[in-house]
């Protein structure tokens, strides 16, 4: 029988080797972070297609030195990307990446403890349960609420829809109807499909002039569907839309849901964490009444991408969806939080550690101060941008995002205004200090500024406002010259 040489089969490393490798990685990572503000916010994309084609390769037969792998990763490939960790990143909805969370991930991956069932790592699972309880308390959900950490808002939405479907539709899935607004995040329709709710059972409700769901339109849609013999079962409110930052009338939607016996889900992926700041809670009135709530700690808690969360008001409804057993597993227990009984994953890592360690390191007070600062910066910047000649504000910040477009006599058509507004986003981003993006809302292209990076402070907002003003003046002058 053929056997491999012992040294070839050995994948273990000596303590000295592991220490040296760790030092290399930390030095590279810290150097990368230290240089963030001196590097362009949008990497060089020229020739990126050719680069990606050249990167295609088969698995290597033999290994390579770690430094030879880190060098191109940090020096060549990583810079050719959006600078999502940059202080000037105000595009889309910024993610975070606080350093203690990276350390937590290293610990979780190095220790490699299994946390799928409570019995396998009781103390570690309790830390994750603590972190979920912190979210529950900040959102003012009841003690009976339960939740789980997910890879992001999309998976949280999927689990929420499946939970509502099981509770309110049972086996009669085809008759169920779900309600969203025209500004609801697109992942809801995808998640609904995965949960068995077809596209023709998703109703899109109109929004008002502030891009908030119209409750009267929602009520009419429910009546129409009941009249057609269908079963309305779920409605989505959004606590901060991606396009304009709009907050739906959550309290009013909750009233409709209670009266009509619908499951009310609040998408707080972007804006939900502002609820942990007491003075900002009125902006999200009604959030704590939700039957379920999506949160993205990789947004409002500034954690690395891949950190989502779901809270369900009636924790037993979530457990009923996911609870299962097998002959090789320990018996289910009910005293302690057991991740596999509240989510779809049995094999899982330790996602709660990055939340637990970071909150323990910084403390909740720092989080509240940082979130309050981001909203204050957005409000201040929006007030300044509104004074720029040629700017029309479409959405002042309800939370920390505002939207606007360019308009002038030289931009006589909607198409011309859209082109100029797009150009404004591109020109500011091309200057390398701030990255901003826009969105199509109906037929109009809106410029957007979203303030949610923990690194974004007043200095970056000053740059953003100044560059928006400068580039707007240039664009309008060019348009007038060619009019």
Count, helices: 16
The ordered string of helix (H) and strand (E) elements is: HHHHHHEHEHEHEHEEHEHHHEEHEEH
Q: What value does the Rg take, in angstroms?
A: 25 Å
CATH class bucket of the largest domain: Alpha Beta
Kindly describe this structure.
It is built from 16 helices and eleven strands. It is an alpha/beta fold and 483 residues long. The protein is globular, with a radius of gyration of 25 Å. A seven-stranded mixed sheet has the order 1-7-6-5-4-2-3, sandwiched between helices. It has helices at 6-9, 15-34, 48-55, 66-77, 99-111, 122-138, 153-168, 187-194, 215-227, 250-260, 297-300, 315-322, 352-362, 364-385, 414-430, 458-482, and strands at 146-150, 176-181, 202-205, 231-238, 263-268, 292-295, 308-312, 391-395, 401-406, 437-441, 444-450. The mean pLDDT is 95. Strand 2, helix 8 (187-194) and strand 3 form a beta-alpha-beta unit. The chain has three domains: 15-83; 103-362, Type I PLP-dependent aspartate aminotransferase-like (Major domain) (Aspartate Aminotransferase, domain 2); 366-482, Alpha-Beta Complex (Aspartate Aminotransferase, domain 1). 43% of the residues lie in helices and 13% in strands.
Describe the SSE topology.
Blueprint: H1 6-9, H2 15-34, H3 48-55, H4 66-77, H5 99-111, H6 122-138, E1 146-150, H7 153-168, E2 176-181, H8 187-194, E3 202-205, H9 215-227, E4 231-238, H10 250-260, E5 263-268, E6 292-295, H11 297-300, E7 308-312, H12 315-322, H13 352-362, H14 364-385, E8 391-395, E9 401-406, H15 414-430, E10 437-441, E11 444-450, H16 458-482
Parallel strand pairs: 2-3, 2-4, 4-5, 5-6
Antiparallel strand pairs: 1-7, 6-7, 8-9, 9-11, 10-11
């Amino acid at each position: 029988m053929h056997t491999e040489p012992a040294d070839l089969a050995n994948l273990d490393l000596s303590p000295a080797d592991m220490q040296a490798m760790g030092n290399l990685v930390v030095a590279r990572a810290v150097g990368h972070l230290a240089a963030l503000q001196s590097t362009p916010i949008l990497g060089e994309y020229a020739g990126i297609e050719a680069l990606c084609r050249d990167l295609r390769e088969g698995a290597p037969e033999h290994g390579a030195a770690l430094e030879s792998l880190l060098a191109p990763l940090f020096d060549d490939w990583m810079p050719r990307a959006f600078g999502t960790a940059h202080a000037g990143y105000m595009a889309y909805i910024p993610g975070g990446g606080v350093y203690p969370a990276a350390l937590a991930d290293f610990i979780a991956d190095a220790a490699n403890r299994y946390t799928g069932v409570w019995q396998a790592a009781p103390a570690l699972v309790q830390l994750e349960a603590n972190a979920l309880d912190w979210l529950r308390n900040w959102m003012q959900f009841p003690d009976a609420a339960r939740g789980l950490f997910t890879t992001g808002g999309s998976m949280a939405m999927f689990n929420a829809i499946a939970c509502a479907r099981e509770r309110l539709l049972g086996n009669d899935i085809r008759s169920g109807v779900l309600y969203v607004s025209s500004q609801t995040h697109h992942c809801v329709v995808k998640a609904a499909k995965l949960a068995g709710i077809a596209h023709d059972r998703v109703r899109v409700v109109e929004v008002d002039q502030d891009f908030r769901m119209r409750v009267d339109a929602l009520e009419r849609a429910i009546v129409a569907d009941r009249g057609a013999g269908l079963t309305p079962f779920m409605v989505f409110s959004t606590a901060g839309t991606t396009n304009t930052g709009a907050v739906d009338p959550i309290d009013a939607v909750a009233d409709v849901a209670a009266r009509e016996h619908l499951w009310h889900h609040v998408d707080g992926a972007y804006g939900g964490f502002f609820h942990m700041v007491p003075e900002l809670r009125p902006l999200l009135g009604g959030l704590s009444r939700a039957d379920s709530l999506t949160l993205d700690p990789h947004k409002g808690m500034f954690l690395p991408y891949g950190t989502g969360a779901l809270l369900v008001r009636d924790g037993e409804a979530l457990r009923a969806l996911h609870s299962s057993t097998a002959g090789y597993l320990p018996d289910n227990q009910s005293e302690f939080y057991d991740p596999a009984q509240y989510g779809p994953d049995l094999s899982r890592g330790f996602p709660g550690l990055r939340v637990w360690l970071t909150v323990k390191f910084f403390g909740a007070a720092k989080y509240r101060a940082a979130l309050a600062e981001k909203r204050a910066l957005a409000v201040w910047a929006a007030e300044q941008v509104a004074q720029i000649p040629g700017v029309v504000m479409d959405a002042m910040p309800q939370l920390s995002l505002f939207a606007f477009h360019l308009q002038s006599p030289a931009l006589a058509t909607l198409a011309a205004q859209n082109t100029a507004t797009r150009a404004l986003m591109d020109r500011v981003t091309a200057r390398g200090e701030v990255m901003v993006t826009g969105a199509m809302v109906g037929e109009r292209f809106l410029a957007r500024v979203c303030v949610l990076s923990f690194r974004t402070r007043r200095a970056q907002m000053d740059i953003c406002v100044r560059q928006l003003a400068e580039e707007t003046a240039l664009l309008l002058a060019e348009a007038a010259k060619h009019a």
